[in-house]
């Protein structure tokens, strides 16, 4: 009997301990940020580098009205309870307005409401626009051990609803913060406008589509500004680097002296994307010219739709001649 009572008490203790552990675990936030045990706060310098050059992206490269450029950056540090945008999911109204028009008010309101309702947001950060396709902009951001994720968007200008960005990048690695991280960025379609080219007029996507990555073969349409069927993958159109700001012995931030200088011209190895010549269909044959009862000639023509670049396939002959019998001879 005593043995049975001992077993009963032991089981009761184990069961109570198990319930306590499960109850504690259920109170933890869900997601990648739940295991962050690093110091509470960390500051980073974030540097956005535009690599959208005419050499890397020669097709329909915008030279005026407006020329190739980048909008301001809008970002947030947050927990896994919040998502600014996600691939293969529908863009919010705020992301739609930002991707289509560069307007940030609705997106800012969405972020603030998420922070107030579920306390999923630690801070908002922004960086100035870049007035050309190649250049740099930078700012600082702060992450928290309960909000170690970083998301941001930068609009591609001009474009229908295209942008680059990062979705929920975790800067915490267990018990420490990452010292430095760089990510190559590729274009995304917000799924709210159906334009194919940089300068396409507004044409709302109804019903709205999900956010998708734009590749060298998708959308699979020759008119698409990023359509390069001979490539396996697009070169990065931008890059972002985040560097942890170190503290001195007094706890004050130490400037990171090796940051690239802000400039509209970035000295970097530039990908040369070959662009083949594109020509129109042949016209119909012209009139047969020549002397009666002798073989004459007739001509058809075509014209250049897209000039070649970066050692792409040169243009073929634009006119063709063939023999014919002159008509209406007496």
**Which percent range describes the beta-strand content?**
25-35%
Low-confidence stretches: 4-8, 11-33, 256-267
Structural category: alpha+beta
Biggest beta-sheet profile: 6 strands, antiparallel
Pfam families: Spond_N (PF06468), TSP1_spondin (PF19028)
GO cellular component, one term: extracellular matrix
Keywords: Calcium, Cell adhesion, Disulfide bond, Extracellular matrix, Glycoprotein, Immunity, Innate immunity, Metal-binding, Secreted, Signal
GO molecular function: metal ion binding
Protein topology:
Layout: H1 2-26, E1 41-51, E2 69-78, H2 93-101, H3 105-118, E3 121-127, E4 134-144, E5 149-157, E6 162-170, E7 172-173, E8 176-177, E9 180-185, E10 188-189, E11 212-213, E12 238-244, E13 278-279, E14 296-301, E15 304-306, E16 319-324
Antiparallel strand pairs: 1-4, 1-12, 2-3, 2-5, 5-6, 6-10, 7-8, 9-12, 10-11, 13-15, 14-16
Would you mind describing this structure in some detail?
The structure is a single chain. Helices cover 15% and strands 29% of the residues. It starts with a helix and ends in a 6-residue tail after the last strand. β5 (149-157) and β6 form a beta hairpin. Residues 4-8, 11-33 and 256-267 have low confidence and may be disordered. With 330 residues, it is an alpha+beta fold. α2 runs antiparallel to α3. It has a six-stranded antiparallel β-sheet with strand order 3-2-5-6-10-11, with helices on one face. The protein is built from three helices and 16 strands. The protein has helices at residues 2-26, 93-101, 105-118; strands spanning 41-51, 69-78, 121-127, 134-144, 149-157, 162-170, 172-173, 176-177, 180-185, 188-189, 212-213, 238-244, 278-279, 296-301, 304-306, 319-324. One of its GO terms (biological process) is cell adhesion. Residues 32-222 form the Spondin domain.
């Amino acid at each position: 009997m005593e043995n049975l009572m001992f077993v009963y008490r032991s089981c009761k203790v184990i069961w109570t301990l198990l319930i306590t552990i499960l109850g504690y675990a259920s109170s933890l936030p869900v997601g990648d940020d739940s295991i962050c045990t690093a110091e509470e706060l960390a500051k980073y310098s974030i540097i956005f580098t535009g690599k959208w050059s005419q050499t890397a992206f020669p097709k329909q490269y915008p030279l005026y009205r407006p020329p190739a450029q980048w909008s301001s950056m809008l970002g947030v540090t947050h927990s896994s309870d919040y998502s600014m945008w996600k691939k293969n999911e529908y863009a919010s109204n705020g992301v739609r307005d930002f991707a289509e028009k560069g307007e940030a008010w609705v997106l800012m309101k969405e972020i603030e409401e998420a922070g107030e309702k579920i306390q999923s947001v630690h801070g908002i950060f922004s960086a100035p626009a870049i007035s050309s396709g190649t250049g740099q902009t930078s700012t600082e951001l702060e992450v928290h051990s309960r909000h170690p994720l970083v998301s941001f968007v930068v609009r591609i200008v001009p474009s229908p609803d295209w942008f680059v960005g990062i979705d929920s990048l975790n800067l915490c690695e267990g018990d420490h913060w990452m010292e430095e991280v760089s990510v190559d960025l590729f274009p995304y379609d917000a799924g709210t406008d159906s334009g194919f080219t940089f300068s396409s007029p507004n044409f709302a996507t109804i019903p709205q589509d999900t956010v998708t990555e734009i590749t060298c073969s998708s959308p699979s349409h020759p008119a698409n500004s990023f359509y390069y069927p001979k490539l396996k993958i697009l070169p990065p159109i931008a890059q972002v680097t985040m560097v942890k700001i170190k503290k001195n012995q007094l706890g004050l931030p130490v400037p990171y002296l090796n940051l690239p200088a802000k400039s509209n011209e970035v000295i970097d190895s530039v990908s040369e994307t070959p662009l083949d010549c594109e020509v129109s269909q042949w016209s119909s044959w012209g009139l047969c010219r020549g002397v009666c009862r002798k073989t004459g000639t007739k001509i058809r023509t075509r014209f250049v739709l897209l000039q070649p670049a970066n050692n792409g396939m040169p243009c073929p002959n634009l006119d063709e001649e063939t023999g014919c019998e002159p008509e209406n001879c007496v």
